[in-house]
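Technical annex, item 7. During the second reporting period the consortium partners agreed on a shared format for inverse folding records so that results from different sites could be compared directly. Each record opens with the tokenized structure and is followed by the designed sequence. A conforming record, contributed by the partner at site C, is shown below for reference.
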């Protein structure tokens, strides 16, 4: 099996999958994925954005969590498994399992709040990913102290 070794930035307009998904995934969104036969995880970004600019620091940190998801050999299959188990992009969506760690990290860093994350993931943008009360319970039960230790 191929192990991922890092990542590379790709403009949404230069990426075949992003062009294919254009009718359903806005070209203004960031998206991370890796084909099983590729070594590097792709971080696809809006065409007009410089992904390495300083003001994209928070977005990069979020997307690097997804790079970690896709880095192991089973990373690409994880996404397929979630898509099969939770095939719809709304309600009980598999995206919740991919998004909860990066968003939990944003809360730990003080960049976001549980309320805002629950509203974001439980709203239109994320297809009402998961029941709000369940997301809140997970986010609140996975708090960390200032040293990064889970306070469960
Ligand atoms: Zn994300």
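Designed sequence (site C submission):
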């Amino acid at each position: 099996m191929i192990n991922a070794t890092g990542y590379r930035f790709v403009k949404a307009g230069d990426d075949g999958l992003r062009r294919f998904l254009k009718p359903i995934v806005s070209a203004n969104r960031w998206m991370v994925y890796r084909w099983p036969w590729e070594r590097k995880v792709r971080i696809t970004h809006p065409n007009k954005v410089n992904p390495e600019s300083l003001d994209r620091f928070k977005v990069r940190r979020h997307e690097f969590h997804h790079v970690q998801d896709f880095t192991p050999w089973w990373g690409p299959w994880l996404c397929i498994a979630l898509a099969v188990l939770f095939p719809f992009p709304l309600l009980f969506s598999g995206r919740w399992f991919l998004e909860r760690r990066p968003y939990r990290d944003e809360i730990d860093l003080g960049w976001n709040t549980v309320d805002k994350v629950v509203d974001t993931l439980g709203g239109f943008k994320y297809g009402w990913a998961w029941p709000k009360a369940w997301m809140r319970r997970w986010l609140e039960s996975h708090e960390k102290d200032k040293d990064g230790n889970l306070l469960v």
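DSSP finds six helices and three strands in the chain. The radius of gyration is 16 Å. All partners now use this format for quarterly exchanges.
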